Amino acid sequence: MRxxxxxxxxxxxxxxxxxxxxxDSGDSGDSGGAGGEQSGAAGAADLPxxxxxxxxxxxxxxxxxxxxxxxxxxxxxERKGSGHRARLVELPGSADQQRxxxxxxxxxxxxxxxxxxxxxxxxxxxxxxxxVQQLPDxxxxxxxxxxxxxxxxxxxxxxxxxxxxxxGLLFYRRDYLKSAGVTDxxxxxxxxxxxxxxxxxxxxxxxxxxxxxxxxxxxxxQLDASYEGLTVNGIEAFASASxxxxxxxxxGRYAGSVDDLKAGLDELRNRTEAAYTLPDAAHSDxxxxxxxxxxxxxxxxxxxxxxxxxxHQSLPEQNLGVAPLPGRAVLGGQNLAVAKRSQRSVAAxxxxxxxxxxxxxxxxxxxxxxxxxxxxxxxDKLTCKAVKPPGQATASPTSERTDRMPRDTYGRPGYARGTxxxxxxxxxxxxxTPLYGAFSQTFTAELARLQGDKPPSDAQLAKDLHEQLKKAxxxx
Length: 476
Description:
With 476 residues, the chain is of the alpha/beta class. The chain has 17 helices and 11 strands.
């Protein structure tokens, strides 16, 4: 794939004239104006007015980095006299509620969204339903991390552009390990395997009297079965137990086996044993686990990259460490897509290209997101010039900062290059299927049985899960 501008200046005008003249006017059902083909308005020129971008909450806070980037694009459009402005609409509720809102709005046309920020697991569903437009391959080039780039495609066609990524990480308390007599507390390059984590937890438990009274159990994670947290932890355990593990084929059909499921269940059960796991984890989401870890109740925490900035606001750098998860971690994040019915497809594509550019991916990284491009982590000459990320006085790496997040010599978050980038490169995707909602609901419901008073054996649960997944995702 090659990267290039999305129809700027004269090129954009030529495109509009060609489309208006009826060039390539046959409706294939999956091509879009942002891709230089058929627009959502049957080839008509962009209408003037706001480009509306619908998205979930920005974890960098109110007036955060996403809003700042949009404001910079608006200033650029004003200088050019394009007649377009972008407007961010943040959707309320959980991720599942946001998905339902977007599906309803795009299917009914009740909301005039031009760009939608999709969770990576939603892309196949929105693409298969023809709710978003096909985009040109050049929008995702070789600078985008390979594992991340794969989340933007469905059936070998590009329907979205990676905006910010996500990956499971393991945060840990250096001060607790030191109190327990662990001599090497610099684990940031990797802990190796889950048994190593369990041995370290054993050291903490043995030294309980030397730890703060708040300490209860070794680790916590998002194991609440009422949302995606248990699914994510389950996939991480399953992928760690079996090399090449997959539950779906390229068409999104069920392709698992009882043996693979049994191995994954054994790994998940081992990771969540009562001897190691905070009891509240079974009912915890992201906010709950952050609170428990920051409050000292555990020595280890599985969480997402944004926790790096958040936790450093309450814990000093010398007390907090972060490492890639042992085994395989799940890839998360959001991708930008052009709504099928957008009447401003060309400008929407230009907005997406701006938001996902090399410089602006560096801005997202500086603000606490996981960037999608190698250059944000590896190009020391690349800086965020367009905006001032939260907590920074300026974009200069030597400027005084108001946040407490450690940074390297070039102003990047301290863990970005050595820990975050390798974790992203090694990450696995959740099953890619237009029926992801049905998969996750089925998967979580079965895994939740492990938390009951009389959990089934791994063999029995593997057989049951296999049968239920075949119903939710009919095999080919």
